[in-house]
Design goal:
This protein has 363 residues and is α+β, with helices and mostly antiparallel strands. It has a single domain, classed as Orthogonal Bundle (Cytochrome-c3 Hydrogenase, chain B), CATH 1.10.645.10. It is 48% helix and 13% strand. The chain contains 14 helices and 8 strands. The protein has helices spanning 44-47, 57-63, 68-83, 89-117, 121-142, 164-188, 191-197, 205-210, 216-219, 227-230, 251-274, 327-339, 347-354, 358-361, and strands at residues 4-8, 20-26, 29-36, 151-152, 155-156, 294-302, 305-313, 319-325. The strands form 3 sheets. Strands 1-2-3 form a 3-stranded antiparallel beta sheet. A 3-stranded antiparallel beta sheet has the order 6-7-8. The protein has a two-stranded antiparallel sheet with strand order 4-5. A hairpin with a 2-residue loop joins strand 4 and strand 5 (155-156). 45% of the residues are buried.
């Protein structure tokens, strides 16, 4: 193909991690895009073969470090499924609340990074300021912040402290007001943001389906699919929440989907917190567990889409093999399609709108 080849990344800060794209351009138009991954590979899947099932918990947080609680939930659910055990109702409520904390915090980091990539530094500070509301509560509950290691097979490590429910409700009411403010001034009324994102980086519905894109990126392209509704787990079948779907498929729609999901997650947390039952937060389990030979799959709706974990067990205290189906991997592959015919100046807004995390890709 004729044209001029340039490399974007892997060291550029706006590539959201060590990601490299080889672009073929003519003038300022991208004719072909090829993603190169693997620069961050840390052997997280292979490490599961070297440590016990419980000892692998801290590794899980580092796989997808922006929404670590959701990865803890996925892994713990996988182990419970392999052992055929059921957790208590109280643990299910606590896990649901924490999973939605993770969803909100992830989307706030998305908004902050998106604003920074567009030169809107106020958006960066606004989003991270609101994120601290939840980080403080998570620290009070678990003792950790970025990587709390709170959800574990059998339930959670610690029960909710007395009075924490009131703090959660107060934080949600404050966040509900603040997110409307951020939504209005950082997105809806921001002419720069709209000019850089509306009609930019369109992912057609049929392309999203064919390329295996899931989560907010798929719902922004008109695909009404959310695993919390499709195959409910925890207490999602008991909760009243909507799945935001937009048809435009552009970078602007991908942002709007996530903003609407924050609002729905606030509703979920408030409803779950008000109805949390009494009972045990953890069922008794030995620290060293052995899983009978089996092939176990667990799929859940994380903030980036559907992530699956496949466990092959052999009866020992360690995994024979652990494999992860990454939502970001498919989003990056879809970007190759999206970039064809786009202006090179739109590269960074498009990448930011897909919200990839390279730790989830380079496992």
């Amino acid at each position: 193909m004729n044209g001029f080849e340039i490399n974007v990344g892997p060291a550029h800060p706006s590539t959201h991690g060590v990601l490299k794209f080889k672009l073929t351009i003519e003038g300022d138009t991208i004719k072909k895009a090829e993603a190169e991954i693997g620069f961050l590979h840390r052997g997280k899947e292979k490490a599961a073969e070297d440590v016990t099932y419980m000892s692998y918990l801290p590794f899980v947080d580092k796989i997808e470090y922006v929404s670590a609680l959701n990865m803890e939930l996925l892994y713990s659910s996988l182990i419970e499924k392999a052992l055929n055990i059921q957790i208590s109702e109280r643990a299910k409520y606590i896990r649901t609340i924490m999973a939605e904390f993770g969803r909100i915090m992830n989307h706030l980091v998305f908004l902050a990074a998106f604003g920074e990539d567009l030169g809107l530094i106020s958006e960066f500070f606004w989003a991270l300021r609101e994120r601290e509301l939840l980080m403080d509560i998570i620290e009070e509950i678990s003792g950790g912040r970025l990587a709390p290691v709170y959800i574990r097979p059998g339930g959670v490590f610690f029960d909710f402290k007395e009075g924490i429910e009131n703090k959660i409700i107060e934080a949600m009411e404050k966040l509900e007001y603040k997110i409307k403010e951020v939504h209005e001034y950082a997105i809806i009324k921001n002419s720069i943001f709209k000019a850089r994102t509306k009609g930019v980086g369109i992912l057609k519905k049929e392309d999203a389906i064919n390329l295996g894109v899931t989560g907010p990126n798929a719902r922004a392209s008109g695909i009404n699919r959310d695993y919390r509704k499709l195959n409910p787990y925890l207490i999602y079948d008991k909760l009243d929440f909507k799945v935001p779907v937009f048809d435009e498929g552009d970078a602007y729609a991908r942002c709007l989907v996530r903003m609407e999901e924050i609002k729905e997650s606030i509703k979920i947390i408030k409803e779950a917190t008000k109805n949390i039952p009494k009972g045990d937060y953890l069922i008794k389990m030995p620290w060293i567990i052995k899983i009978p030979p089996a092939y176990t799959i667990e799929i859940q709706e994380t903030p980036r889409g559907e992530i699956g974990m496949i466990l092959v067990s052999d009866g020992s205290e360690r995994a024979y093999r652990l494999k992860i189906r990454s939502a970001s991997f498919f989003a990056i592959k879809a970007m190759e399609k999206i970039l064809e015919g786009e202006k090179i100046a739109n590269f960074y807004p498009i990448l930011a709108s897909l919200d990839p995390v390279m730790g989830e890709i380079d496992r």
